[in-house]
Amino acid sequence: MLCDLAELFKLFGDSTRCKILYVLSEGECSVSDIADVLSMTQSAISHQLRLLRQSRLVRCHRIGKTMLYALADEHVQTILKMGMDHISE
Amino acid sequence: MLCDLAELFKLFGDSTRCKILYVLSEGECSVSDIADVLSMTQSAISHQLRLLRQSRLVRCHRIGKTMLYALADEHVQTILKMGMDHISE
DNA sequence: TAAACACATGAACAATTATTCATATGAAAG
DNA sequence: CTTTCATATGAATAATTGTTCATGTGTTTA
Questions:
Q1: Residue range A26-41, pLDDT digits in tens
Q2: CB atoms within 10 A of CB B44
Q3: Domain limits at B27?
Q4: Mean of the pLDDT values across residues A54-67?
Q5: Number of independent structural domains in chain A
Q6: What is the C-alpha to C-alpha distance for residues B11 and A16, in angstroms, rounded to an integer?
Q7: What CATH number corresponds to the domain at position B16?
Q8: Residue B42, CA: closest nucleotide via C1'?
């Protein structure tokens, strides 16, 4: 149980993944757009998206050739916001 | 900013530290008591407590020979609880 | 069907990090 | 003052993990 909790927080505990989640908190986005915004390779982003997908923190659906990613639910956004609150205190 | 956020979550993203924080959420505790509860060495616990202290997630004060640790503020407990809520859904 | 585009993924490397072992510090008891 | 108890810490090791490179899969367009 507490191990599962650690696994959850571990996903938020990487700056790349935090940035991805933040970008997605502003709306759906494709893989290459995320890569552009973060100035990182498509591969690096795709690898991280896979982890986020596997833990159901993001969901995705295909539109033609592109995949659109989004936050899985409100919970993820809440965790992000609450972390930010803690930072800026 | 998002990097600071990742650094914060990184601290929750380790099962040992999660367990330590959980134990402390039930009240003040000494280093050796934490080590006993988690069946880990005093040294391992002490190293982790140092990280938690440096990030002000826990505070401590000395009573004689023993050091009593506690959660730094309500915020830490809230983060823990919110993570748990997410797990059990 | 072949080429182009968007994304996924396996393997390898580099960097980070949790634990152990040995030892140091600091307080209390004798 | 010396010993003992509780904790802290430096160095080393082992394990985890993020990124890169090369390549594979799936979809559209010519």
A1: 999 999 999 999 999 9
A2: 12
A3: 2-88
A4: 96
A5: 1
A6: 16
A7: 1.10.10.10
A8: D7
